[in-house]
Write a structure and sequence with these properties.
With 162 residues, the chain is α+β, with helices and mostly antiparallel strands. Helices cover 40% and strands 28% of the residues. The chain contains four helices and ten strands, in the order βββββαβαββαββα. The radius of gyration is 28 Å and the shape is rod-shaped.
């Protein structure tokens, strides 16, 4: 049986408890106790640390709700960023729905509009689009092709802001 009195224990979630103690040499020992996880000891007996911990009477601290909320927000933000990087299929390419692509399109559109005002044609035009694998050089033969590309991108990106 593990001596939990030497440890400071804290719930990580409803299925895991982290137990910490400082060893004599100053090192921190951490044990993660998972609900339902069992193992056999050297005598062949099944050990369930979760049940041992809860039967020991040792106080298990609750996690700070603000910390849990901050961690959950960070995880959600990272998941959204990952989804944006994975992108969507536009013009046969998987284009990342990133702010970098958005800003690039806006800058190129300013150039397209300026050229149109001056009566110039800057097409065919190359656009360096961010993809999950890196950057992909895309060539647009006409302004309408690029505008359609931009509108499709914007419609997909807007789904993250509803």
């Amino acid at each position: 049986m593990m001596n939990f009195e030497d440890y400071t224990c804290q719930y990580q979630n409803d299925r895991a408890v982290e137990c910490r103690r400082e060893k004599e040499n100053g090192a921190i020992e951490i044990k993660l106790i998972i609900k339902g996880e069992t193992f056999e000891d050297e005598n062949g007996e099944t050990i369930n640390r979760w049940e041992e911990l809860h039967a020991s009477g040792v106080e298990i601290q609750k996690r700070d709700p603000l910390l849990v909320e901050a961690e959950n927000e960070a995880i959600e933000k990272a998941q959204v960023h990952k989804t944006k990087l994975q992108g969507v299929l536009i013009n046969g390419e998987k284009i990342s729905l990133t702010e970098e692509n958005q800003n690039g399109m806006a800058a190129v559109m300013q150039g397209v509009n300026l050229a149109a005002e001056m009566g110039a044609d800057i097409f065919p035009l190359n656009f360096n689009a961010q993809t999950q694998a890196g950057f992909k050089l895309m060539t647009f033969k006409a302004a309408e092709d690029f505008k359609t590309f931009c509108l499709t991108f914007m419609a997909e990106r807007q789904k993250f802001f509803k």
